[in-house]
């Protein structure tokens, strides 16, 4: 039985991805040993639900708990145990977004970490330009609910966080970002005319990068495949499942069940077929920008 080592270079993985990989490895080891979640939870003075959260990478690991589980699962080789426990320490290291912790709800932390680790991010947006491609002015208008009198230091820090998230798109190993955007977004008056024009200009600039694609879904084809925004994150590491992410007013859902992921994937396929091609979408963006 070998301890897990992240493929593709350890430095490319953030703490969120490391936790998920370690959790997946612990689950396989438990299943191979024929041990139930309830039995594993009891051995670390916890519950079945705690083991479930650990195996999904939803919470941080305590070295003592992991050491006890490794013993229970039959991993006794000192070198293998140390390799695993070293990765536990690395998985608990804070990500760059830690300094924005006072602004981020707990359910949002995982998304930032998953974006950093993803190989491909597919997004459907019927209301706004996705946060990963927003300009500062556009993001500020959204976060202040379109009211300039509500712009304050907290809003500016939220905008700074969003801009920092975007830096991953310029990395040498940047994920592939594919956005399907409803045509209504190009007409929705976020901010003033200059803000909207600047945002569309920015989209035209960003799609020149080889890892970014935008397709526009015309008015007459909207609302058939999916009626709310979602993202699908895919990973190069075999240990990481594809994850669909959807938000609601007070939280978010992270979906990794295979049958549900397939439904989201099919919806994206249908959206891509209904939307204009990337080249035709670029022409639509240029035309709309000239109209504003």
UniProtKB/TrEMBL annotation:
InterPro entries: Cro/C1-type_HTH, DUF5753, Lambda_DNA-bd_dom_sf
CDD domains for the chain: HTH_XRE (cd00093)
Source domain of life: Bacteria
Gene3D superfamilies: lambda repressor-like DNA-binding domains (1.10.260.40)
Domain DUF5753: 108-286
SUPFAM superfamilies membership: lambda repressor-like DNA-binding domains
Protein name: Transcriptional regulator with XRE-family HTH domain
Taxonomic source organism: Amycolatopsis roodepoortensis
